């Protein structure tokens, strides 16, 4: 069995894994990181989205062995010392979740979206989240939440250039 | 509260209230705290010591005789702990289980398989991967039989008999059911100046909650207690059914419904996988987890709709609707597992007279078996009201086209007026309250209807593409099942309990029988208590989903939580408030009759400075204060709420679409939704419910379908084929509201969760058909995919429920 070394939410793990083990199952079943759920079996829904070396991936479509040497961030790794990340807060404030099942993946995909585009338009948010299905919210409040978080996350940078 | 309130951007003028808030309003959700951190507790997150994993072997055939099942190789797999077959279950008298529609359903096939994906064997193994591996080692010998795929041929003389498990059965007929006055309706149709008929298919779709169905079954052989953690919308009903089916005493069964990743009616019934996992736990003595994957969910759990309807509408030449006549062929699949009140085999389909003052109406529904998975009632249908509302709203548009009338004006002319409520319909419903013209006017105003029509006319005149269509839907819902006398599920009356306990320090615990799947009960039910007792929302903990901890009740579906359990919560809180009044009287040495309530406080009438708060009362009720004779102390109450009637929320929707006739592509440009659900406990949550339901409407109208080929192969068995709307296909919803309280509900609140799913498909289809008017199109069946619309434009529509020939 191949041995992998992977950093997940700031902790380094070394494990022997079957080559066929999916990253999402490694996270959930081996590490107990059950905050990242599974919503489909054809890589359409995006509920399992995590960041791998900063880029969003659908962890149901990545083998755990492929994550060897990588830095993985799940929704459980956001926020510092019990605080929440601006994206998490924005989802709460804009009522951008109901059952909560797509929420972890939606939040992680949104972070990757903002990495590429710090000030997305409504249309750009919708396009950017096309890989994430939600059955509850009808998306509108998610779009609002992402734009709200984007504004908040831009603030420190804006302040730097403001005299 | 606003009347005709219009908040196009979804913002409410009163802003957000914090959770220190004492009642109704835009209170942010308490449950978010765990979900945004990945700290929810869904069934697949549960891990118990020694837990094993189950997997199901499924039939590749739609219809086949089961010749043999050889499990030898699977049993020899080093990680396999048990393999269960139909034969195993027969020994336990569990091979078949009762359905919610007085039929039986195979748990594991014994004689035949009757749909593709049907459960044939269950493997229990040390890991989830090993369980799947072992499925490959089971050798099943099938003898293929011809399947019944087309519901319209299910009753043909030469149709293969699907249910030959029933002695003496010679056909695929399930039931005939009718409502309304056939003779009166025929008379009205005989006299009518205008009669229009239209065949309308509401194709088979699936609720597809993002979390699939699953269970962790844990039979403790020492205590004899079975604990199941499962995705159920009705935990108490599940407990009772397990007791009846498995012969376990009900007090030794605990059903826990943890966080549920969406239900939408998919998680009401009991599925074979649950029974297999329980048997697996009994057989192995260890907990067994079974979680289905997406294709299993789509292929085998409760589908929705599949109604083949022929509707007729009778009217005067000047547009007064007089009668409706409907014949329905209902495809129920291989087992009649439809989840609905016992006396209503077609659910509440007979609210199909909709929002109109109609003299006579009649419907006849025939249910048939086909070689497909069971289900029917699911996906926010409110017991078949999706079908009813879609039919009548299509018929009104067909009539408008026939008369050359504007669909908005035709509706306005026929809508029930405020003074007609309570209104008895021609099929026997008593609508509680409504002011429909006001609501339609609000929607038309938000949409700028006249300008839209002018824009459309201009575009048509100039021949500017794409084609523009405007569609209206006005619906009346019937939710909150229901009065015990008329409504039961498997003999269990549809009343719901509530228990409220106020702790010595004034914090409260509310225990309810309903089970949220994302609708926000943990917040909104706390708001009801806060509203009634004047304590902060954060001081109320809502406990639900655990049958050991909560009072009996029928669960959450049919938008029944607010109408039934919401009412129970108000009633139980008022009981506590009255007890608090007696305690306050003893504290203040005043007669309780002389006390006056202001939120959170009982005070002496005329002397507001002499009073005590709920917190002070709570402490005194648990303290040494001498209480009047007959008052036991503490501060709690229980109740069971048996609703006197359903609630009838309603709404007016306007969709604007663009259709490219060259490709058939439909774009929903705008969608205006004005909902009236009476008093809104939490407007933010209501709006979220509406948003979600509108997305369902986009999905059903434009992309979702579960079609079958001639061999009975399921053609929508994954998210590759069964398409759900993404953020890209959904427009920014434009919402409005009117408020017409329910007179019989303690809070004036009506249900709303399913309204948008019920009301929105018709608006979109009406809009697309409106866009296609230059092509002489009168109707087109859902889903209006590009291929379908293109074929409709060519004058060659196809059957959306069957494979393209």
From TrEMBL, chain A:
<dbReference type="GO" id="GO:0046872">
    <property type="term" value="F:metal ion binding"/>
</dbReference>
<dbReference type="Pfam" id="PF00111">
    <property type="entry name" value="Fer2"/>
</dbReference>
<dbReference type="InterPro" id="IPR001041">
    <property type="entry name" value="2Fe-2S_ferredoxin-type"/>
</dbReference>
<dbReference type="InterPro" id="IPR012675">
    <property type="entry name" value="Beta-grasp_dom_sf"/>
</dbReference>
<dbReference type="InterPro" id="IPR002888">
    <property type="entry name" value="2Fe-2S-bd"/>
</dbReference>
<feature type="domain" description="2Fe-2S ferredoxin-type">
    <location>
        <begin position="2"/>
        <end position="78"/>
    </location>
</feature>
<dbReference type="InterPro" id="IPR036010">
    <property type="entry name" value="2Fe-2S_ferredoxin-like_sf"/>
</dbReference>
<keyword id="KW-0411">Iron-sulfur</keyword>
<keyword id="KW-0560">Oxidoreductase</keyword>
<dbReference type="InterPro" id="IPR051452">
    <property type="entry name" value="Diverse_Oxidoreductases"/>
</dbReference>
<protein>
    <submittedName>
        <fullName>Carbon-monoxide dehydrogenase small subunit</fullName>
    </submittedName>
</protein>
<keyword id="KW-0001">2Fe-2S</keyword>
<keyword id="KW-0408">Iron</keyword>
<dbReference type="InterPro" id="IPR036884">
    <property type="entry name" value="2Fe-2S-bd_dom_sf"/>
</dbReference>
<keyword id="KW-0479">Metal-binding</keyword>
<dbReference type="Pfam" id="PF01799">
    <property type="entry name" value="Fer2_2"/>
</dbReference>
<dbReference type="GO" id="GO:0051537">
    <property type="term" value="F:2 iron, 2 sulfur cluster binding"/>
</dbReference>
<comment type="pathway">
    <text>Alkaloid degradation; nicotine degradation.</text>
</comment>
<dbReference type="GO" id="GO:0016491">
    <property type="term" value="F:oxidoreductase activity"/>
</dbReference>
TrEMBL record, chain B:
<feature type="domain" description="Aldehyde oxidase/xanthine dehydrogenase a/b hammerhead">
    <location>
        <begin position="37"/>
        <end position="146"/>
    </location>
</feature>
<keyword id="KW-0500">Molybdenum</keyword>
<dbReference type="InterPro" id="IPR012780">
    <property type="entry name" value="CO_Mo_DH_lsu"/>
</dbReference>
<dbReference type="GO" id="GO:0043885">
    <property type="term" value="F:anaerobic carbon-monoxide dehydrogenase activity"/>
</dbReference>
<dbReference type="GO" id="GO:0030151">
    <property type="term" value="F:molybdenum ion binding"/>
</dbReference>
<dbReference type="InterPro" id="IPR000674">
    <property type="entry name" value="Ald_Oxase/Xan_DH_a/b"/>
</dbReference>
<dbReference type="Pfam" id="PF20256">
    <property type="entry name" value="MoCoBD_2"/>
</dbReference>
<dbReference type="InterPro" id="IPR037165">
    <property type="entry name" value="AldOxase/xan_DH_Mopterin-bd_sf"/>
</dbReference>
<protein>
    <submittedName>
        <fullName>Carbon monoxide dehydrogenase large subunit apoprotein</fullName>
    </submittedName>
</protein>
<dbReference type="Pfam" id="PF02738">
    <property type="entry name" value="MoCoBD_1"/>
</dbReference>
<dbReference type="GO" id="GO:0005507">
    <property type="term" value="F:copper ion binding"/>
</dbReference>
<feature type="region of interest" description="Disordered">
    <location>
        <begin position="1"/>
        <end position="30"/>
    </location>
</feature>
<dbReference type="InterPro" id="IPR008274">
    <property type="entry name" value="AldOxase/xan_DH_MoCoBD1"/>
</dbReference>
<keyword id="KW-0560">Oxidoreductase</keyword>
<dbReference type="InterPro" id="IPR036856">
    <property type="entry name" value="Ald_Oxase/Xan_DH_a/b_sf"/>
</dbReference>
<dbReference type="GO" id="GO:0005506">
    <property type="term" value="F:iron ion binding"/>
</dbReference>
<dbReference type="InterPro" id="IPR016208">
    <property type="entry name" value="Ald_Oxase/xanthine_DH-like"/>
</dbReference>
<dbReference type="Pfam" id="PF01315">
    <property type="entry name" value="Ald_Xan_dh_C"/>
</dbReference>
<dbReference type="InterPro" id="IPR046867">
    <property type="entry name" value="AldOxase/xan_DH_MoCoBD2"/>
</dbReference>
